[in-house]
Amino acid sequence: MSNEILESLKKAVIEYNNEAATRWARKAVEEGVDPIKAVDALTKGIRQVGDGFSQGELWLPELVGAADAMKSAMPIIEEEIKRRGKKRETAGVIVLGTVKGDIHDIGKNLVATFLTIDGFNVIDLGVDVAAEKFIKAVKKHKADILALSALMTMTGQEQRKTIDALKKEGIKDKVKVMIGGGAITQGFADDIGADAYDPTAVGAVKLARRLTRK
Ligand code: B12
Prior knowledge:
This protein is of the alpha/beta class. About 60% of the residues lie in helices and about 10% in strands. Bound molecules: cobalamin. Cobalamin binds near residues 64, 107, 148, 180 and 183.
């Protein structure tokens, strides 16, 4: 049953079927399927569509349709992840967002969910966030960590810009910066002076714990 649900979730994304994505996400919760596996199945689906798009086999409306299907299922699964998570003492304050010029938020939202259930106070600024807005929020909330997501090669440069802006403001040593997103690599993170990088949302939690030494 569990495999059928996981396959159906993946299929719903590949076939841009919002109704099926919602229905199978509810079924996954009802049947006690591990929500992390459900996220993995949805992610496999969206990545398959993304690959088709990059190879010119699929077009933007198909990418949008697949993203919509994934976004229909995600709140249901994220709710279940939160329900299963054990909340700890506040582990630290994290300002998070997708950088300027970039509206991809599925991965960023997942990072927010995992950090929240691990006890971090996450201030999510949303998408298309300019460096100045990140800096304002870091100061206002006295953030321990600034987490930047970027899904495109071009918008990775906004992560660099944000780190440079922190340096200019003289607060780079007051906040740890962790970065991630599809286009990002460890080499790039080292190059722009980020404190940490991980390719996954689960890894983001490990990084956050390490960076706050909790
Ligand atoms: C869904 C999607 C969209 C949706 C986004 C919907 C939404 N609300 O997010 C829509 C259709 C709107 C879209 C639009 C575009 N897209 Co798009 N999109 C994708 C796609 C298929 C999947 C992204 C996704 O959600 N993945 C699933 C999540 C779970 O994974 P993730 O985001 O990588 O996040 C994980 C990790 O990276 C990590 N993580 C994420 N953030 C952070 C942060 C930190 C701090 C840490 C530690 C970890 C971390 O944790 C997450 C979970 O493990 C990718 C292809 C791909 N393979 O990634 C293309 C892709 C990113 N898109 C691309 C492009 C080109 C575009 C458009 C320019 C298309 C166009 N011609 O208009 C526009 C850009 C709009 C803009 N200004 O941002 C390209 C980028 C190419 C590049 N390297 O620069 C890709 C790679 C497709 C491709 N192969 O060509 N897209």
